[in-house]
Amino acid sequence: MNAHVTPEKTVPYEEMSASLLSQQPVEPTRPPQWQENWGTIYNHLERRLSALRTWRWSWWTFWSVLAAFFLPRRYHWIVTANRMDRGRSINDQIIDSTATLALRTCGAGMWTGLTSPSRPWFKWDKALPWIELEADGAEWLEDTTKRVGTVLASSNFYPIMAQAFPDVALMGTAPVLVFEDAEDIARFYLPCAGEYFLGVSARFEVTDHYREFVLTVKQIVDMFSLDNCPKDIQLAWANGEYDTEFVVAHAIEPNFAILGKGNKSVDVVAGAYAYREVYWLRGNKTAAPLSVKGFHTKPFAAFRCYEVSNEPYGRSFCMDAIGDTKQIQQETRRKAEFIEKGVRPPMGADVELKNEPASIIPAQITYMNTANGQTKKFWPLFEVNFGWLSGITADIEKVAERIQRCLYVDVFMAISRMEGVQPRNELELTKRDLERLQELGPVVTLAEKELDTILMRVFDIMKRRNMLKPMPPSLKGIPLKISYTSIMRLAQQAAEAVSMKDVLQTAGGLSSAAKAAGVPDPIRVINLDKSMRHYAEISNYPSDCLFTDDEVQAHDQAREQAKQQAAAPGQAMAAVQAAKTLSDTQVPGGSALDSLLHGNTGVQ
């Protein structure tokens, strides 16, 4: 690999906006730029897309079932341009909304628990805990954390993650694309299930992301500029066919060379890039690529609920709950049918009423022949036993509870749904929550690993744009990491904080008792300074609000000097008083002071 690292190439979609679109001419100013060896590259991309589609087939069909019973709006069965039925009803399978509401609670709980926009949830930190940071290093880490957080807050990161976590809980997978943007610095995109195809590396990490999606002619010109569009798009633009759709294919994969004609090695993207990206019109080999770009860091994260060995797609909470969800839909239908038969049962009628006006609607009249005292009338063919209704309702409630447990609603609504004896103190409350959160531990860890990718990508973009302070010399050579201080992570750490507080309170009581008894103080076994710093760290107390060890030592020395200076006048007065007493005390041969100064003891 070339040791020289070239800067990432700027592409038009990083600047797409209404202002960029307004600058596009009616006709192109130059022919589209063909990528060298495009035919070879196109064949490679289409083959990979076809292969990934084949491997995804079983997941794709399962996703359709999950979407039908939980959240139909987050799935595309087939990506096809110019479909006019997108506004059709898609919730035909959902009669009871328990599963959909539980998914909403689960997604919102994961969003606020891991990436809450209202409080800090990550920070740049030292990777080795035994390293002592200097003041400028700690300040740089704090400043970098705030700057990255500001960029995330000003972008569309939080709305995207608000949808990504329900996707993780539903489909088990949610790929989030991270692109540089002229307006937002970083902009995020979330393909829905049915659009994306994933592949993994030998480390079982997702490193390949293909997708297909539809864009209108106006959107394609806005995203790639008219000069970079193939002739089909340019012609449609010139003819005013702005809302005609095309299927756009998109590939992100490691930047390895491929085999071309004559067994020649072909570089898709030249340069020392770890990843490459290509946009093209799907199935159109004669068209030039829409965009080609290289990346030094992976420009996407693939969130997965549960990893499955060598599979690029994850398993999900909703996959565990699909059986219960089908059951509750079926039982709800049967319950409605049961009630309907009780209120509007199938009716029998005398044969003489055949072809006569008849009705069972309230306030309507049915005329009958009552001659000879015989009344022709309607009668229910059978009567429903409404005592069974309570049993059906109770079973539906049990199934709904199982669905909510599969989606961890009891975890995210722990305090509001707490049953029985309420916790007596903070320690008991924390332990109860921790028991629930232990089940989500693996999911939290996997999510934080993908958040690492997003945060490092944003950090890299900001660094290239000179939006970060220069790293101080004291941090050079010190490994750094991203620590997470989210609500869920803090909840897992809360047991330690509560235990420390309990120990220190107990130590304080024992210290008072020891002083009263005149025995050695047991609190001397605790390093109070280190305990205070560790407690502040696990409680997510701002590091810039704590004095460094050097500052604490300087303050201690200043207090000691002030104490000595305050005691000096008292010591001088005591010496004067002692001298006066000695001078007034008479001994043989003079005063006691003369005896001390001159050695005159008065002894002959």
Labels describing this entry:
604 residues; alpha+beta; 5-stranded antiparallel sheet; 3-stranded antiparallel sheet; flat
Q: Could you characterize what this model shows?
A:
The chain is α+β, with helices and mostly antiparallel strands and 604 residues long. Among the domains are: 84 residues; 31 residues, no CATH class; 37 residues. Helix content is 46%, strand content 13%. It is built from 16 helices and 16 strands. It has a 5-stranded antiparallel beta sheet. The chain has a 3-stranded antiparallel beta sheet with strand order 3-2-11. Helix 6 crosses helix 7. The longest helix has 36 residues. It is flat and about 155 Å long. The mean pLDDT is 84.
Using only C-alpha atoms, the radius of gyration works out to 38 Å
Which regions have little confidence, pLDDT < 50, spanning 5+ residues? none
Gross geometry: flat
- Rounded average pLDDT: 84
Largest sheet: 5 strands, antiparallel
Number of helices: 16
Give, in spatial order, the strands making up the sheet with the most strands. Answer: 4-5-6-9-10
Alpha-beta classification: alpha+beta
Name the helicity range.
40-55%
Beta-strand residue fraction = 5-15%
